[in-house]
Amino acid sequence: MERREFIKKFAATVAAMQLGDVISLIPNAVAAEVPTAALSRLRLADSIADVLRVPSVCLNCSNVCGMNVLVKDGQILGVEGSKTDPNPQGKLCAKAHGGVSAVNYPERIVYPLKRVGERGSGLWQRITMEEAYEMIAERIKPAIAAGHPERVVFHGGRNKIGDIVGRFMNAVGSPVVLNHRALCSANKRAANLTSIGDKDWETVDAERCRYFLNFGSNFLEAHQGGFPLMRRYVKAKAAGAKMVTFDVRLSNTAGRSDEWHAPFPASEGAVALAMAHVIVNENRYDAEFVNAWMNVSLAEIKTFLAPYTPKFAEEASGIAASDIARIAREFATAAPACVAFTNRGTQGHQNGFNNERAVVLLNALVGSVGAEGGYAYGGSQSIKGSNFPEPAPIPPKPKFSTDLEDPKQYPLSNHWAKMKVSELVFDKLLKGEHQVDVYLSYTIAAPQNWPEGPQVTVAALKDEQKIKFHACSDVVYSEMAHYADLILPDATYFERYTIDARNAYELQPYMVLRQPAVEPPFDCENFADSLINIAKRLGPDIAKYFDFDSYAEFVAYRLNSLPKRDGLNGFDYMKKHGAWVWEKPKNYRPFAKTLSAEQLLGTTVENGVIYQEVKGKKQAIGVMQNGVAKRGFQTPSRKFELHSPYVEQMAQQLGIKDDGWPHFAFPESMTQRKPHQLVLTTFKWNVHTQGRTAPQKYLTEIVHDNPAWINRQTAKRLGVKSGDFVEVTSYRPVSDYQVHNPSEVVGKIKVKVVVTEGIHPDVIAISNSMGMNYGGRIAEGRNGKAAELPAFAQAEDADMVNHIWWDKRRGGAGNGFNPNSLIPINPSPLVGNQSWNDTICDVVKV
Amino acid sequence: MSYRMIVDTNRCVGCHACSVACKQEFQAPLGHFRQMTIYRDVGSFPQVKREFLPISCRHCEHPDCMVACKNQAIHKVDGTVQVDESRCNGCGDCISACSIGAVYVNPYTQKAEKCTLCLHRLKVGLQPACVSTCVADAISIITDNAPIPSNAVGIKNRASDTPRSRHIGVSQAMLDKLQEGKPFDPHLYEIDQWGGV
C-alpha cells in the first residue's frame, strides 16, 4: 500500500486517533470555512463566584510566579495572582493568563506517537505508553551494556524536574545532561561568580533603589526574574527613582526610562569602565568598601582604569563623554541605593563576560553591593537535594565527563556551576565528536531557538547515524517533536508537580509548589513520571533507585522533610498554601557578617583568608578584617575580585590573551565591519517565551509577526519603507570558535522591515519566538478546520477555524521570521556564552 | 454604589496582562477586544520614548451607544454601561455611535459586547480582571464620591462625549489612533502601527 493512503485526507486531530492509526502532522492547506459553532466552553466571567482555587506556579516563562488556578467542573477557566508567593505580590503578566489556552489546544499531543517513514517526514502511528516505555528502555540498555552510558543524552530547557532527571541520568551512568544556559545567561553568571562568588545573579533591592543604571536588560518585558523586579521598580519609580537605560534598541524598558542611550553594540563595557574612571578620579567611591572588600588596591584600580576615559568610551560607543560622566556622578550620588545591572544586551557578545564584570564593578566602587536599595544578591532558597533530601538509595554521579557537556575549551562554563556550552552540541554531533544512541529531549525547541538551528540543529537531528534514537516529550507538535522517533505526550504545567524557587526579591528565602489543577488528559503524562516508568524497565541495578510509584510521591518525600506547619506536613502544607517563606532578616551585606566561634572551629588562616578542611580539601570560608573573622565573598580571596587570578590562569593555559582584569576590547568582527554593514541583534517580546508560547492564541494575537527593525536613516539609505522586504546576508565571526574568513556566509533570508526611530542606525533587530514551522494553527498563523474527526475536549475552537486574522492568506501579517539561520554558533571565550548580538550583515532592498 | 475606572498611563508598562486577562475572562473571539493596550513611539532618534494606552469602554455618563440602541438593550448600572443580551439583536448601531470603538458584535452569538467593568467581579468583592492583575497598579476602580486624581481627565474623541472613566497622561496623538464608529482594530497591535515614522 502506498504511504499516502495511510494519511488521512485532512489534518486530523490527534485525540481522535485509534491505536495503530497513522496521521500526518505537518501543515497542509485545508480550506478555511465559515465558522458555525459557537464556543461551548465555560467562561470565567460566568463562574467567578464558585471556582475552585488551586495554588500553583506558572511556568510560561522563567519567572515562575505563584498563581491560583481557577477550576470549575474539571476545566481550567483562568488564573489569578497568588498572595502567598512573596515574589509577584499577587500579580501576573500576560503570559501567565495566556498559558491557559495550552491545556485545551486542539493540536495538543495526547497519545504517544511512533515515527513511521523517514525522520522528519511527519508521519506518526499511535502506540501505547507501555510500548513507548519499552521502546526507550530497549534503546538505553545496550548503551549501558556496551560500557557507553554517555551515549545516552538528556537535553532539556527550563523544565523544573532537574531532581528526577539528574537521578535518572546518574542511575544510567551518563554525565551528558545538556541545557540551554550558554544561550542565555552564562556570561552574566560567570561575571557574578568571578566578582562576588554568587551562583545566581543579582537580586536588585528595587523597591528601595533610587537609581537604576541599566545596561541591556529589558526587565519590563523579558528579564529572568523580571516580573518581581518590575513590580518593585514601579513602586520605586512612583517614589521618584530614576532609570537610565543603555540598549541598542528601544525596548519597552528603554522606552519608559528617564533616559535612553543607544550605544554601538558590544561597547557597554567601555561605557561602564569610563563611569568607573569618573567615580574613582573624582573621589566619588566608597572608601570603606574599596579598602576593606576589594582584592586590589585603589592605586591598582586607578592604573587599570586610566585608559578608559569618558572620551575613550565616547569613541567606542557613540555616547557623549559628558553624558557618561554626568550619569556616573548621578549614580554615585544616589549610592548606596543605586544599582548597575545587565542582561542579554550586554552579555550576548564575544566580550560579554568583561562587559558584565565592568558593570558589576560600578556597584563595588560606590558600595552598593549587598546594600539596602542596591546590588543585593543571595538570600534565595536552594531546592537541591542537600536541602530537601531525596529517597534513598541515591545513585552516585558518574565519575567522568565528556567534551559535549563539559567542553574543556570553555573552563569557566563549568567551574562553579554546570552551565555547559550547549550551542556547540549539534555542531559537535555533526562532526562526529560524540556518538548519541539515545537522545531524550524536553522543553527545548532547538531547531527554532539555536544559532544556525534551521541548518545545523536540523541536520544533526535528521541524521540517524549521529543520533540513533530520539524521544521527545512535548505538549504540542513542536519543532523538536517533528524530528523525533517517538513523541511522549507531556502534561502541561497546569497538570504536574514540581518544587520551585528563584531569586527572592524580598531577600528572604522562599519556595513554591507547582501542582496539578486538573489531571493530564488522555495518555498525557508528566515527563518526570515517564522517566520513572522507563527507569523501572532498565533492570534491577537502575530500578532500585526508583522504588516509588510516581513523581508526586517523590516530591512529597522531599517536601515532608520540612517541619510541620499549621499541623500539616510539608507536602500537605504546600498543596494548601502553595508557598513556604522562611522568616529571616533581609539578606543585606552578607559578606560583612561575622563568623561565629562555632564556624571557626578547626579553621586555619593564611594571608588573611580563613580555611576549613572539608573532605580532605582546603576550602576558604571567610576573611580576617581588622582582626575580626568575616564571611566575605564566596571568591577564592573572599573579597570582591576585580582582578581574577583564576581567569588569568585559565586564559594562560588556553593560550588566550587575558590578564584577569575586565579590560574592554571590541569583538574582532565589529572592528572589521564595513561602514555600510549592520550588526544583527535579537530580542524577546513581553508576550512570548522563545519556542514555547507561539501556540497560545491570546498571546500570539498580540505578537505574531516580527519584521526587522531598522532606523529611519538606515531605511533612507537602503531606499525602503515599513512593509518592504530586504535580503539579509550574515557572515561568520573572524575570531574565536573556528576562525573564519570574514566573507564566509552563514545565512541569507528575506525579511520584512519596520522603520523606526527606536534603534541604533548601525543595527538591525529581528526578534526570536516567531516564524514557527510547526505548533498548530495558531503558531503557524493559518485558519482551517480540524476536519472530519471530533476534536480534543469534544469541541473545535472556532477561533482557529476562521478568526486567525493575521493569516497571510487573508492579507494578514503572517507568523513572522526566524532569525537563527543568520546567527552563527559563536561562543564567547572562556565562558562559552552564545554571542547573539555580534553578527555582521549586509542588508539590501529586495 | 457607583464605580469609576482610573487609568494612569504614566505607570503602565505596556505588558498586555490586562488585555489577556480580559480575553481569558470573557473568551472574546480573536480579532475582537473589550480592552486593548496600544503603543506609540514619540520623538526622533536618539530622543525617543514609548507611550502606552490601556483602553476600554469609558462608561459614559450619557452614553451615545445607549441612545443609539433601538431595542433599549443598553442601560446604566451603578455608574457602568451594560448590554442586556436578551434585548440585543446584533444590529451594530452601538458600534457606530461610540467615538472610540469600544463595542463589537460577537460573531458567534451576534450580541454586542464591551467592557462591563467586571461588574460580576465587583459584586463578589473582587477587582476587575484587568485591575487585579496589573503589575504597575496603573488601573484602579474608585467608588461613589471618592476623590478623582486632579490630573485625571475623561478621554474625548468627540466634544459631546461624557466619559466617566478618567485617564492620566494620554497624548492627543495617542488618542488620534482611536477610530470613531469602528470596533477596536486588531491591527493596532502590529508594530508598524506604533507610529513614530
Question: How are helices and strands ordered from N to C of chain B?
Answer: EHEEHEEHEEHHEEH
Determine the structural class of chain B based on helices, strands and strand pairing.
alpha+beta
CATH fold node name of the largest domain in chain A: Rossmann fold
Report the largest inter-chain contact: A-B, 72 and 48 residues
Q: Into which percent range does the helicity of residues of chain B fall?
A: 10-25%
Q: State the CATH architecture of chain B.
A: 2-Layer Sandwich
Q: How would you describe this protein?
A:
- Chain A is of the alpha/beta class and 846 residues long.
- Chain A has four domains: 128-184 and 384-500 and 516-577, Rossmann fold, CATH 3.40.50; 196-365, Dimethylsulfoxide Reductase, domain 2 (3-Layer(aba) Sandwich); 590-644, no CATH class; 668-845, Barwin-like endoglucanases (Beta Barrel), CATH 2.40.40.
- Helices cover 26% and strands 16% of the residues of chain A.
- An eight-stranded mixed β-sheet of chain A has the order 1-6-5-15-14-13-7-8.
- In chain A, helix 8 (268-281) packs antiparallel against helix 11.
- The longest helix of chain A is centred in the first third of the chain and has 17 residues, at 129-145.
- Chain B is an alpha+beta fold.
- Chain B has one domain: Alpha-Beta Plaits (2-Layer Sandwich), CATH 3.30.70.
- Chain B has six helices and nine strands.
- In chain B, strands 8-1-9 form a three-stranded mixed β-sheet, with no helix packed on it.
- In chain B, strand 4 (74-77) and strand 5 (80-83) form a beta hairpin.
- The longest helix of chain B is centred in the N-terminal third of the chain and has 10 residues, at 17-26.
- The radius of gyration of chain B is 16 Å and the shape is globular.
- In chain B, 48% of the residues are buried.
- The mean pLDDT of chain B is 96.
- The interface between A and B is large, with 72 and 48 residues.
